[in-house]
Write a structure and sequence with these properties.
The protein is mainly α. The protein is built from 27 helices and four strands. Among the domains are: 225 residues, no CATH class; 169 residues; 70 residues, no CATH class. Helix content is 70%, strand content 2%.
Amino acid sequence: MNRRTKLGLNVLEAALLLGVLGDALLRQTPWGLNVFLWAGALAAAMCALHGRSGGSASWRADGGWLLLPIGFFAAAFAWRDSATLKFLDGLALFVAFALLAWRARGHNIRLGGLGDYALGLGHAAFDVMFASLPLAVSDVQWAAIPRRGAMRHVWAVARGLVIAVPLLFLFGALFMAADAVFEGIMRQTFELDAGQLFSHFFLTLLFAWMTCGFLRGMVLAGDAATTTAGVATQPAPMLSVTTPPAHAAYTSITVDDSERDGAASAASATGATGEGETGAHRQSPGSVVVEGGATTVGATVGETTPVGVQEKEAAARGLSLGAVEVGVVLGLLNVLFACFVVVQFRYFFGGAERVMSITELTYSEYARRGFFELTWVAGLVLPLLLGVHALLRRNSPAAGRIFRTLAGAQVALLFVIMASAVARMRLYQSEYGLTELRLYTTAFMLWLGLVFVWFAWTVLVRDARLRFACGALVAAFVTIGLLHLLNPDAYIVRANAAHARAGRSFDAAYAASLSADAVPALVSALPALSRDEHCLAASELTRRWSGRPPGEDWRAWSLARSRAWRTVAAHQASLSQATCPPPVSSVPVINMTTATEPPPPPKMTATAATISTATTSNTTTSAATTNTATTDAATMDAATIRMINEAQRALAAMSNGAKSAAAGNAKARRRERAHAVKRARTR
């Protein structure tokens, strides 16, 4: 049994265990503690398989730090209850796991570009969906598995089960049909729900399939890379060695331009690209560096660059941009951005009157309309600048200088535009309060601000574009972590409650619809609300969070939901005593034509015989008197309804009578015309 088959069997074992564990944990929703437990098991399986396979790249040098965000975002499922935060947590978990597997294949995380990150995420998604099939079909050589020892007994037991299970079902069914007592015992012992059994089987198979493909892509792809790295390298070209000063930690080796490609390919074949990138430095095109026997591209100063980047850039020089192209593209964009910034200064310094006089919009409508468009502008500028920098003509110093100048100006203008967008959103929030969409979009803008600062430092100042993607990823992780510390739903309730105390409206229905994270803040804000809002929020809190559900499972435990239940239970008395306004009657009030109220009814003291006689003599008067004697607020509404119905019936009868009369008149006129025609003919 070869090494690849052993690794394939290890992946299958881990996938089956993770599939069973996924069915046992993740079938319980809403997700909470179970995500943390299952993600921890997956991370442990990845570490064990990576160590057993001897991956082509060590996680100690690069990539191991991703285990920290994996643990944090998995635990966040049991911390916060916001659906948006859970979506961000799941996205961050997928990115961290995918990049960790990408590193196991021999790629670099710290020095990877955005394209490398996208490729790693694409590989992970493809492996999750489809990579399990080649593992079972081609990677594991089933015929090569030895049939001796414990394995021989395992296969014998499996064959025996295949034969015995159908027979057990057959004879068991016959015995159950033959004896009612035996049937009852068997049904109680093996009481199985077909739907529940199928759901367990399906979820186990689903989680096993996904984890099997993911782990196969990590382990066997890395194993293939390791095998490739073991191929004998070609001899390096003739190198002339020059001795550096005594303080230098490396040996500078000058090579001819014609021999550079061969040296780089030989270095990559010996595995220098996998582990040597941490000490590699960019240098002028005429030198490389040998450190510890590994040949890498070198330089005394500048950007850290893995072997092969310059060769890739040279291959792409057919699409390179020179000084003129860069100046035209970025220069025109800067002119457009500058014009927009000037307009923004006019509006914001001119005040609300100027905005409303020019745009015919309210100030809040103007603010809401522009924020999301400016967010798109900020999000599109970043890939544009990165793409232009990737296509720069490296042998043109003028192109680099023009790019740094114009890109720096564009970033400065973009910061003004982003400040305008944030100011617009703050203005809109001051009028209409805060929502999840407004809060998370503002957080996205702040993350973009951090990313652009990092872009200016790495790309414009240090010319180290390959360090940009990792910093942007870390900034995204930090931003999501800060959102968890902020607790967005509770912050939304507190901000809107402050607006309510200032005399503005408060959307109690929206606040009560937020997740469990907002419950303590909403309970604290109830005294500041109006009676209607207080009643609506209290009734909704009582409906959703009064008492724990009877079927609560420990797998779905969440700190936020636990706090919500405890808070509502502690304030149950005050919540239940919330006075709500009486419901408005659905019957319209009809103004009576009489200005005086009817006289009070006389007291009825007659005997039963007298009442009977009065009833036979004047039924209408007696009924009216009886109704008047028993009239109250409820019967007045009923009488009003009857009056409306009688009026409608009278109108309908009048309408029908008018129609029949009109039809009769028309018929008579037709008869008169017919008689007149006959008399005219006889004459």
